[in-house]
Amino acid sequence: MKSMKKNPVLDAAELPVGGSKFDFRDPKIWQNADGTYSCIAGNCLADGDGRILLFTSKDGFQWKFRSILVSNDHRFGKMWECPDFFRLDGKWVLLASPQDMLPQGFEYHNGNGTLCLIGTYDEQAGTFHEESNQSIDYGIDFYAPQTVLTPDGRRIMMGWMQNWDTCTMRSPDEPWMGQMSLPRELSVRDGRLYQTPTREFDAMRCNKTVHEKVNFTGTISLEGVSGRRIDMELTLRRGDAQALYQKFAVRFAQKDQYHTSLSFRPRESILKIDRKFSGSRRAIIHQRRSLVNSAEGSLKLRIILDRFSAEVFVNDGEQVLTATMYTDQAADGISFFSDGTVEMDVVKYDLL
């Protein structure tokens, strides 16, 4: 690899008036149908308000500022990092990772978050027109995602399983720090971003265990359902036609006083991931809640554990919650709890 003499190829001289030369980063480049190139980058104004800038080039080396693709206008945090922009299922999708966010209901949380805008793109004017917005991930540890386009046309995304506020959480016994999420295939349905594990991931599943129509209350464990590298599908229904259960929980990475839990309260339709009993001794975020779609206590969950992480896909990818936990690997127990009667189907695979 050789460095060009004409570096940088894009610098602060191309910024629009008021743009910070210090917060100008994270370019994402693509080639257009006519052979020219486009690039978006994160930037902010003097007051820290984020925006995404669009640049164009005929050859990929000589770049010019084209337009402000989209402005935050003080809605979602401040500086927008790591933008991505692509066409998907007839819509244009803009991904960004805003810093210093304030919470908005259960959709956005404090601190460093993720943002997905879905809408249309006026290529002549170089502007994006938002139709809907949502978080990309509703868990604790997911930031700065980027996508690639596969040869067969699928849009695949991976994210950093941490953020700037949780960098101190790591295993002191491991020679590495930080990890990436599973590759996720993206789609847009009814104006919403959906995420599912790539189909190639299924080849890693083995040792299938199935339990159907498990009707229970209190705490139970199921034969063959344990492990720290697993792919587990849960389908929940009310188990009593006369009374809706109050709460369901699944606890994993469990041993003695340690566990991480995923709990659901159907009356509020609130799903919560909680790692405060995972063994962490740090004063960082250990819980996060999300408002999910559920009718009469029905819910579908796909929980993928990979030694130090959990990725929870809700209702076939309508939402995802991601979290890391550094519990000792000997903690491989899984149990289920219900306050009230739940009927549950479980399909569990070990992962190679």
Quick overview of this protein structure:
The chain has 352 residues and is an all-beta fold. 0% of the residues lie in helices and 52% in strands.
Architecture overview:
This protein is an all-beta fold and 352 residues long. It has two domains: 12-199, 5 Propeller (Tachylectin-2, Chain A), CATH 2.115.10; 200-351, Exo-inulinase, domain 1 (Jelly Rolls), CATH 2.60.120. The protein is built from no helices and 22 strands. It has strands at 24-31, 37-44, 50-57, 63-71, 80-88, 91-98, 115-122, 127-134, 143-149, 155-160, 184-189, 192-197, 205-220, 229-238, 247-255, 258-265, 270-274, 287-291, 299-306, 309-314, 319-324, 333-351. The strands form four sheets. Strands 13, 14, 15, 16, 17, 18, 19, 20, 21 and 22 form a ten-stranded antiparallel beta sheet that branches. Strands 1-2-3-4 form a four-stranded antiparallel beta sheet, with no helix packed on it. It is elongated, with a radius of gyration of 22 Å. The mean pLDDT is 95.
Main features:
Tachylectin-2, Chain A; mainly beta; elongated; Jelly Rolls; ten-stranded antiparallel β-sheet; 352 residues
List the secondary-structure elements in sequence, H or E: EEEEEEEEEEEEEEEEEEEEEE
Q: pLDDT under 50 segments (min length 5)?
A: none
Distance between termini? 36 Å
CATH topology-level name of the largest domain: Tachylectin-2, Chain A
Number of helices: 0
CATH C-level class of the largest domain is Mainly Beta
Q: Summarize the main sheet.
A: 10 strands, antiparallel
Q: Find the structural class using helix and strand composition.
A: mainly beta
The oligomeric state is single chain
As a percent range, the share of strand residues is over 45%
Q: Give the helix proportion (percent range).
A: under 10%
Supply the CATH architecture of the largest domain. 5 Propeller
Mean pLDDT: 95
The CATH superfamily name of the largest domain is Glycosyl hydrolase domain, family 43
Q: Rg to the nearest angstrom?
A: 22 Å
Count the domains: 2
Judging from the principal axes of the Cα atoms, what is the shape?
elongated
The number of distinct β-strands equals: 22
